[in-house]
């Protein structure tokens, strides 16, 4: 992939290592857009970001970490790195290469260090930052939009839940009128809704403190419960014991810094929107302390993320 030029169309088989939540944007023409950025990896030791839009972005289940076969994916360029655009995709294809890739991933491949072809400043979600790097609008000072990690302690955490839109990937709050629930974002009207968990936090490191919010996925990771269990604990006040245990614990918070010009004018970022909250990985995080990282940064050919492979041609011949 690294040898392929921007604008080239490639076919690729790789596995989803991780992905962002659905990102809601507004185009310059005022049109609502949704996208999801998926990190694909393979045995070559490289990764690349694959961007999904619209319904595909909403329906993609990154938690299942599927094998992805792409046909006709266009290589794009963003911030000096390479990305993959729209294409025909098939998830978990029943072919030997897919099985081999899945076996590699499950037997240690997911822990391998990879070189990102999409980021000039390192791996996906690997740019370290400090709380003091964040300005009042929820964006990083003097940093380009991207993915960052903050190692911080949980100073305060307040869980809550709300009635949310049933559309996949939306989860915006709905308003009820005469038994019908209407989403203020996608205008979907339904007699049903789902409960979504929202947590408000104050996190801090040695530089400063800031507000942060997380939704169901982050809440489930922190509380080690599913959303229904968390909501039940909120209702019967048993959540307070778990909150007490979480206070002052350190976590690695993964955060996507958005370009504010693309955010809906109805909403404005005032807190960090956390994509993931993970326990400290001693073997990884101790070797890549934020200070050290910041100092350093002052025919149908299947194309591997890091090398070429023509197995589909061989199969079709």
UniProtKB/TrEMBL annotation:
InterPro entries: Euk_RPA1_DBD_C, NA-bd_OB-fold, Rep_factor-A_C, REPA_OB_2. One of its GO terms (cellular component) is nucleus. CDD domains: RPA1_DBD_B, RPA1_DBD_C. GO terms for molecular function: DNA binding; zinc ion binding. Residues 147-286 form the Replication factor A C-terminal domain. The keyword Nucleus applies. One of its GO terms (biological process) is DNA replication. Belongs to the replication factor A protein 1 family. Gene3D superfamilies: Nucleic acid-binding proteins (2.40.50.140). This is CLUMA_CG001173, isoform A. Pfam families: Rep_fac-A_C, REPA_OB_2. The keyword Zinc applies. Residues 7-85 form the Replication protein A OB domain. Keywords: DNA replication, DNA-binding, Metal-binding, Nucleus, Zinc, Zinc-finger. Its main location: nucleus. It is found in: Nucleus.
């Amino acid at each position: 992939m690294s040898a392929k030029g921007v604008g080239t169309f490639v076919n690729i088989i790789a596995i989803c290592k991780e992905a962002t939540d659905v990102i809601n944007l507004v185009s310059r023409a005022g049109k609502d857009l949704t996208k999801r950025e998926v990190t694909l990896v393979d045995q070559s030791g490289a990764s690349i970001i694959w961007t999904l839009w619209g319904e595909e972005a909403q329906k993609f289940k990154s938690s299942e970490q599927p094998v992805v076969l792409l046909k006709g994916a266009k290589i794009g360029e963003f911030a000096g790195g390479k990305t993959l655009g729209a294409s025909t995709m098939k998830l978990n294809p029943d072919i030997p290469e897919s099985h081999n890739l899945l076996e590699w991933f499950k037997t240690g491949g997911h822990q391998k260090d990879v070189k990102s072809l999409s980021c000039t400043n390192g791996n996906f979600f690997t740019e370290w930052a400090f709380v003091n790097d964040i300005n009042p609008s929820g964006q990083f000072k003097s940093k380009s939009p991207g993915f960052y990690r903050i190692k911080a302690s949980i100073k305060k955490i307040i869980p809550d839940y709300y009635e949310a839109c049933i559309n996949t990937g939306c989860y915006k709050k709905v308003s009820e009128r005469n038994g019908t629930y209407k989403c203020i974002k996608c205008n979907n009207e339904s007699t049903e809704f789902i409960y979504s968990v929202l947590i408000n936090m104050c996190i801090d490191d040695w530089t400063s403190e800031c507000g942060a919010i997380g939704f169901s996925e982050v809440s489930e990771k922190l509380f080690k419960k599913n959303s229904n269990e968390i909501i039940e604990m909120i209702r019967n006040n048993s959540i307070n014991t778990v909150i007490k245990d979480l206070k002052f614990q350190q976590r690695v918070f993964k955060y996507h810094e958005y370009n504010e010009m693309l955010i809906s004018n109805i909403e404005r970022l005032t807190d960090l929107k956390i994509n993931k909250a993970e326990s400290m990985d001693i073997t990884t995080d101790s070797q890549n302390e934020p200070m050290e990282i910041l100092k350093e940064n002052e025919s149908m050919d299947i194309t591997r993320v890091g090398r070429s492979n023509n197995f589909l041609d061989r199969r079709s011949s």
